[in-house]
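B., you asked whether I could sanity-check this one before it goes into the benchmark set. Here's the sequence:
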Amino acid sequence: MFTIKTFTIKTVLGALLVLTVGTVTTPGALAQTVALNPDHPDRHTVVRGDTLWGISSRFLRDPWQWQAVWRINPDIQNPHRIYPGDVVFLTIQDGQPVLQVEPGSGRPRNNMAGEPSPEQVLTESSGPTATAPAGLRLVKLSPQIRVAGLDLAIPTIPMDIISPFLLRARVVSQEEMDNAPYVVSLEEGRVSSGMGQKAYVRNLDDNAGMQFGVFHQTVAYRNPGAKREDILGYEAIQVAEARVDRFGDPATLMLTASYRETLLGDRLLPIGQEEINPFLLPRAYDKPTPGKIVAVVDGVSKIGQYQVVAINLGTRDGVEPGHVFIVNQAGTLVRDGVQPARKGNIVTLPEERAGVLLVFRPFERVSYALVVAAEKEIRQYDAVVAP
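And here's what the prediction gave me:
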C-alpha cells in the first residue's frame, strides 16, 4: 500500500436527505423517480468506517440518486458532512418519507464551520510597560489555543482502496512516454536502486524543473479486439521521487523517496502536490456512450466489490469523478439443442446487470472506477452503460 502524503477534504454533501417513493422535484433539477431500498432500516447510527455510499445504499435502491433528494438542514452549522455518532433516521412528513440527520457527539465542537484543526494564536495583551526601554512600547504576546475538533467526516467510498490510484498511478499516452526523460543507468551499475542512490537520466531539459516522479510503465490499455498498436494509454506507477543534482547528458538525479525499485528504462514525469477528495458527488453518467471494462487492477480475471477497474471512457467522453455506471455481464454463447440443424444455431444470450461502478479518476481515454456493488460475477470486457 502506498503512503498518503496529503489529504485535502472538499465538502459537497449536505446533512439532510429527503427521499420520496415516486417522484421527487428538487430546485434546479428535473423530477425523477427515487425508490427506497425494500429492506431499509428506520434509523442508522454512523460509525467509523461507514461511507456515504454505504449509508445511502441502506435507504435507497439506487444510491447515486441522492443528489436529487439531498437537503440542507439549517439547524446544523456545518451542513456538508456526516460524522460518526450522527443518527440518520427515517420519518414521514406530509405523506413523504424523509431522511434526517441528528448530530451526534462525534461532530467538531468549536469548529462547525470547518475551520483548520487546532492552532495556536498569539494575541496582544495590555500588560505592564514599565520595563520597556525609553521611547518603546512593550507588547506582551500571550499564546492562546483555539481547539477545533478533528475533521472525521465519513468519505463517499473507502479511501484506503482508491488512494494509491490517486497518488501513485496515472494513465499516460504513448507520446508522453516516448518524450519523457528515462533512466539510462544507476549508481555503481546496479540494475535497481532505491532511496539515497543516484540515477542517470537522458532526455532531460535543463529548464524542466528540479523535482520529478520516477514512473514504471506497466500495462497497455486497449479496446477489445483492437490491434496491438491501437493503445488507449499506458498505466504508469510511480516508484520514486527524484531531485536533479546536475543537468547534462546524462543528468544526475538523487532518489529522495522510494515506493518500489527504480529500474533501467523508468521514465520521469512531473509531479505536484496531489489532492485527495473523499467527497465525490455520485451521479449517473448522463450520456448514451457505452463502454467496456478494459482492465482489472492486479490482473485477476473475476471482479468483486471494492476492486478497481479501468474503463475505456474518459474526459473526452464527458466522464467526471463521481459518475456512476451500470455493469452488464456479456451474454454467453449457447447452442440450440432443440433444433441443432437450424441456421444460426449458436445463440448469444442477452446481457444481464452485474454491478455498479463509480469513477474516481478519469483521464482522456481511460478512467479508474471502483466496483461499489457486485450482483453477479464481473469480468474484463463486460459492458458499462449509463444507469
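One thing to flag: The first strand starts at residue 16 and ends at 18. Otherwise nothing jumped out at me.
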